[in-house]
Design goal:
By secondary structure, the protein is α/β, with parallel strands linked by helices. Helix content is 47%, strand content 15%. The chain has a domain of 154 residues: Ribonuclease H-like superfamily/Ribonuclease H (Nucleotidyltransferase, domain 5).
Length: 304
């Protein structure tokens, strides 16, 4: 394993440990009376990020690797059932760590965001679609970018131009993109209230007079390409290069962090595994920014 991964793991562990000392209520609930876990919550989050960055989609293979190569960093490592249970219970903690790392990165204050949604496939057979615990949340949808149908969810992601995740939501494959974006901002009104005049760049699917009026009322300057039959919109010359930014971010999540190979079979399982990959991207950007690296979204130093 690389020195860079060791450095990131150490920095992340210290940051999460300090967070839990300052805000112990962020830790997963456990009974006051009972045995203390041998693997701390800070170690758990650090291991989850390392698993995503190193490209282990199989938990069994990951734990075998960790037992063989990471005992110098983690004296105790659980077996697969314990790991799976602890990780699912830590979903809220992962969300908190995500926000802490993002706000501790200079890119958090960027005044230009990009937004898009990308498929998160959850199964392929018809039998899976009928019997899965995800049925009712996951559904059939169409991905125009890759001209394919899929059964699963969509990850709606708002990022800075450097790739730093700002806000996100997991919704059904057919969920309306405009409505989902407005709901993201409604859940966290402070995101826009603290940034008057924020610029948001989306694709042609983020359209509609009422939708754009609501964004304008929130102080958002919304840019998108013109749809068929519309007049050319301001900023059209920027759309093509900047649209590639969000496509590149999605490809980082899918190609390097295996977003669609999450392996989740329940709502909690899928949720925490998607969060795990977004946290891995955020942690890499956070660490690269602290280290003064020129390309913040580069994972090359950590993926081997």
């Amino acid at each position: 394993m690389t020195t860079e991964m060791d450095t990131l793991a150490t920095a992340l562990y210290v940051r999460v440990d300090d967070l839990l000392k300052a805000s112990p209520h962020f830790a997963p609930w456990r009974p006051k009376v009972g045995l203390e876990p041998k693997l701390s919550d800070a170690e758990l989050v650090t291991l989850a990020v390392m698993q995503a960055l190193l490209g282990f989609v199989s938990e069994a293979r990951w734990l075998r690797y960790a037992h063989a190569h990471l005992r110098y960093l983690f004296p105790y490592l659980p077996q697969q059932p314990g790991w799976n249970k602890r990780l699912r219970r830590a979903a809220d903690l992962v969300r908190q760590v995500l926000r802490v790392l993002a706000t501790d990165t200079a890119g958090w204050t960027d005044d230009v965001w990009v937004v898009d949604s990308t498929p998160v496939e959850c199964g392929r057979s018809r039998e899976t679609a009928k019997r899965s615990d995800l049925a009712g949340w996951a559904e059939y949808g169409y991905c125009a970018s890759h001209s394919r149908y899929f059964w699963g969810l969509r990850l709606h992601l708002v990022c800075t131009l450097s790739g730093l995740p700002i806000a996100f939501a997991l919704a059904g494959a057919k969920a309306n993109e405009q409505r989902t974006l407005l709901e993201i901002f409604a859940v966290e009104p402070g995101l826009l209230a603290e940034r008057p005049g924020q610029t948001l760049i989306g694709d042609k699917n983020y359209f509609g007079a009422e939708f754009e009026a609501q964004l304008a009322d929130a102080g958002v300057h919304h840019l998108r390409p013109a749809r068929k039959g519309e007049a050319e919109r301001p900023g059209a010359e920027l759309f093509k290069p900047l649209r590639q930014v969000i496509e590149s971010i999605n490809q980082t999540l899918k190609g390097q962090l295996d977003l669609e190979r999450h392996g989740g079979r329940t709502v909690t399982g899928v949720t925490v595994r998607v969060l795990q990959r977004i946290l891995a991207l955020t942690a890499a950007i956070w660490h690269n920014a602290k280290a003064g690296e020129p390309v913040l979204r580069s994972l090359t130093a950590y993926d081997h």
